Structure prediction request, 460 residues.
Amino acid sequence: MAGQSIPGTAELKKLDTAHHLHPFTDYKALAGEGGSRIIARADGLRLWDTDGGEMIDAMAGLWCVNVGYGREELARAAYEQLQTLPYYNCFFKTATPSPVQLAATLVDLTPEGLNHVFYGSSGSESNDTIVRMVRHFWNLQGKHRKKTIIGRQYGYHGSTMASISLGGMSAMHRQADLPMPGFHHVMAPYWYDAGGDLSEEAFAERAAQAVEDRILELGADTVAAFIGEPIQGAGGVIIPPAGYWERIQQICRRHDVLLIADEVITGFGRTGHWFGSDRYGIKPDLMTLAKGITSGYQPLSAVMVGDRVADTLIDKGGEFYHGYTYSGHPVPCAVALANIDLIRREGLVERVRDDTGPYLNRRLHEVFDDHPIVGEVRSEGLIGAIELVADRKTRARFPDMGSVGSRCRDHCFEQNLVMRAVRDAMVLSPALIATRDDIDLILERARAAIDATARDLGRL
Ligand code: PXG
Prediction:
């Protein structure tokens, strides 16, 4: 903060509590606990708060800092772009170099058939863009009844009115009187939770069939699109059973329903592939990118638009009345280019696929398979979850779902480990630069936190 002195921790906490409404926060409860932890500095996987406390970040910020903190190359890219051209827009027949270069790079990187890019500054914005595009597309096709979008329970697509509607978070719906008309939700492919005795194959069939059943119930002539995260992140790292995405694609094709892959978390190497769509063989019509596109160093998002939608939009659409002041902002686009370059040069995607991803999976099993309150561990690449349950055999949950998870998250902080709880699942998604030693340290601390939670419950 050049030219300004930074207040001390106590003063910062006081000002924060007095004036700052945080996202997804119970304000009274936070004030009661003495206010926020203030993070001042970060490097690699490490965070330091203003009291000098050091933590290991097993969440890569909010699932986004893929290349880790403190990367000089990204800071330099932003600085140089800020000096050359801090802002110009892409409205009114203009462009700047970095969004153009980035568009070509993204087209190259993403699955075949996605040849156009529309920029935003957040995943939520880009999912709003998708809703606009889908409606415009079907109108241009003369199919004015094709309007409904189907999402899934526990799906998370953002926090604007349209993106909440796409998502399946019931608490968000209740608070905002959503979803809007024309948004429906079906079951998540959450095998551990809803699979009962079904085999993986049979459960994949059942979860995919729920989509087709809903399409038939609504009438295929009214269903515009299906949206899903290849792996559901904020919903609790729900990894789909084998065969699920294949079936979903068959169903979408059969009923001429557009397929939207929300890759905000699964993009840019998280699963050990550039995109979750590569991992599961998904060929989406539209794809949402954000977070890892800049490793969180700058706000940026993008919609990758498949040829079918893009061709219609371009050939028949006339002017598309949609865009944001910062669509294609040169600074985040320059940072994204540097970020992608870094991921490529350091071979981070291959490293996650061949080494650290499989290592995380093996160690999760070694550390937790015998634990009295762990029902399941699961991971894919460097995204994973540890399910805390009352009964390992019956998979019975603890009463008051979420309370054990939040207790465990507090124990993680006591261990200087940042891990997030989703209901009673502890989730992790460390930076892709994590080494085997980092993974060992994360799991050692996670084990200590889960042990402490089990002791609180009289289970250890
Ligand atoms: N899609 C997916 C799959 C996401 O995970 C968004 C869209 C929205 O992106 P923006 O940039 O508008 O936030 C997300 C965001 C959490 C958490 O606590 C997850 C997200 C955001 C904030 C918190 O898990 N995911």
